[in-house]
Amino acid sequence: MRPKPLTRVATHVALITCTAVFIGPVVYAAITATQDQSAALSPSLALGTDLLVNVELAWSRFRLGEFMGNTVIVAVTVTLAKTVLSLLAGAAFVYFRFPLRGVAFTLVLFTLMMPTEVLIIALFDVVEWMGLYGTLPALILPFMASATSTFLFRQHFLRVPRDIVEAAQVDGAGPLRFVRSVLVPLSWNTIAALAVVDIIYIWNMYLWPLINAVGPESTMVQVGLVRLLVDQQVTHYGVIMAGAMLTMIPVLVVFLALQERFTRGFALSTER
Amino acid sequence: MTKVEQRSGPAPSPAPGPSADARPPRRTHGLRARIERFDAALAETHPATFRRRSAALWMLLPTAVVLVVFLYVPMARTFELSLYRTAIFGQQRLFVGLENFARVFTSPESLDAVVRTAIISTLVIGGSIGIALLLAALMNQRIGGTRIYRLLLVWPLALSTAISGVVFRVMFDPNVGLINSWLEPLGIQPEWFRDPTLAQGILVMALIWNRVGFNLIFYTAAYQNLPRETLEAALVDGATPWQRFWRVTFPLLSPITLFLLVTSTIFAFFDAFAIAAIFDGGPLNATSLLIYEIYENAFVFDARGLAAAQSLLLFLAVGALTVLQLRQGRKRVVYQ
């Protein structure tokens, strides 16, 4: 049953208003990114012609390209590693019996309560002690395992029909071949859903990347961009906004590509 | 776990959820007991597929190593640090017992930060979940155009929290910002970042603005998987839209709401650091959230013990909410 026409119009009006409020700042940033210095330093909302100049300045002169490369390396490595590690751990919890399995699973679940930021002081000590402070691995290694992903993969595997598993057993597949040729093909929706969340997570990280940003080789793009503004390295807002627009592209691409799978992946396994 | 996706039709294997009624429990409460019960139920429906236990060890080892080295060890060290007063960034230290925890609540600056964090977080959590739920409900009225709204509303999410802070900072710049140019005809030119209340308002607004998209994609996914029959039954019953939402839809969405409550709390406690840092915690500490105080105490003011105690306070809050979520999540939502 569709709502009455009047209700539909009212709903659209409400949604259009909200959408305008939500994309307003993005549109404003995008317009500023096209303006030359004097326009960007005025409240003008006219499109300028300096987009490419600003992008070029942000990308090379202010090294955002390099920082973006670092962020992409971290995001891709963490997402891949997290997927592989959690998939294996999830499978181990479902397809094996071993002593203390319940305890091991509780210990994994318990880390749900430990966001890295809570441990930031001690994490700094651990990373420094390992000699990794100020390097890219310091941004990657601590995030390679995940309670959320392990838990979701396990939930997903529990719903894999028993006869598929038994068929693989009859074939005499070993654990690794079973994971590769049975579980992985059945898990793409879950993998994609988690990849979306992981990438948003890495793109949003700030505190630890800030502490770890000792030199340009370990600076992530969000840290680099904030520095441009706060340290007043750049007073040309057009360049800063061009940088901001650049950082949106990878997340939007990932999200658009995986949107449908995300919906299906989380539909099946919901809430952690 | 609650299974929102369960539809009619041939049931797959027996529900893997740890249904409390599956077998007589040995212990009735506690996470351990719950997991033992779950394990027992699992043994019936999912007998061991592979016998070689060493393979399980190798599959678990990488996750275990990362969790121990980067979460459990730092956690233990945070507890340890919280019991000491340190100087020269940890070179010298003095055991002070619970003094740091007392300081969290007795030192006026720290207590202010606790209260400030509680208020700002509540606004951010409530606002980002409430607005996302409202938008998801509106978008699911079969009015058409949903895909376009969904596509546009996630844009702020692609802008990371720190970069959202940058955009808001520029937008509210008193001299060249857009907002003050709009206010000019009205004759008011607020100094947004010199007035504590205004700065807090922008902080809350920027955080909600940045987070709604995240909550919205989860609500939209959940909406698309609501059991049709139940919703249609409510329609036939002649319930008003308002009743249908609060009595049928909202309870069905409660597992996802609980999940978002935990993730939004983590966002408000920790990710908010990025924007607080861009505002320098000011003016007059107005945007200095606990996580910003922790950072300053640990890495600027050389008060690592106090920072560790403040961290543990946030840990307790997140822990309590997570436990609540896991408990509720294990009760199954009844709708059939």
What keywords describe this structure?
heterodimer; A: 272 residues; mainly alpha; MetI-like fold; 14 helices; B: 336 residues; two-stranded antiparallel sheet; disordered C terminus
Q: Your description of this structure?
A:
The complex is a heterodimer of chains A (272) and B (336). Chain A has 272 residues and is mainly α. Chain A has a single domain, classed as MetI-like fold, CATH 1.10.3720.10. Helix content of chain A is 73%, strand content 0%. Chain A has 14 helices and no strands. In chain A, helix 4 crosses helix 11 and helix 13 runs antiparallel to helix 14. The radius of gyration of chain A is 23 Å and the shape is globular. The two termini of chain A are 33 Å apart. The mean pLDDT of chain A is 87. Chain B has a domain of 230 residues: MetI-like fold, CATH 1.10.3720. Chain B contains 14 helices and two strands; from the N terminus they run H-H-E-E-H-H-H-H-H-H-H-H-H-H-H-H. In chain B, strands 1-2 form a two-stranded antiparallel ribbon. In chain B, strand 1 and strand 2 form a beta hairpin. The two termini of chain B are 16 Å apart. The N terminus and C terminus of chain B are likely disordered.
**What is the H-and-E element order of chain A?**
HHHHHHHHHHHHHH
Main sheet specs of chain A: none
CATH topology of chain A: MetI-like fold
Give the low-confidence spans of chain A: none
DSSP strand count of chain A: 0
Q: What is the CATH C-level name of chain A? A: Mainly Alpha
**CATH-defined fold name of the domain at 101-330 in chain B:** MetI-like fold
Rg of chain A is 23 Å
Shape of chain A: globular
Sheet with most strands: strand arrangement of chain B: 1-2
The profile of the biggest β sheet of chain B is:
2 strands, antiparallel
Number of helices of chain A: 14
CATH architecture of the domain at 101-330 in chain B: Orthogonal Bundle
Report the sheet-strand fraction of chain A. under 5%
Q: What is the H-and-E element order of chain B? A: HHEEHHHHHHHHHHHH
User: What share of residues of chain A is helical?
Assistant: over 70%
The greatest interface between two protein chains, and residues involved on each side, is:
A-B, 108 and 127 residues
Which whole number gives the mean pLDDT of chain B?
A: 82
What structural category characterises the helix and strand content of chain A? mainly alpha
Helix content of chain B: 55-70%
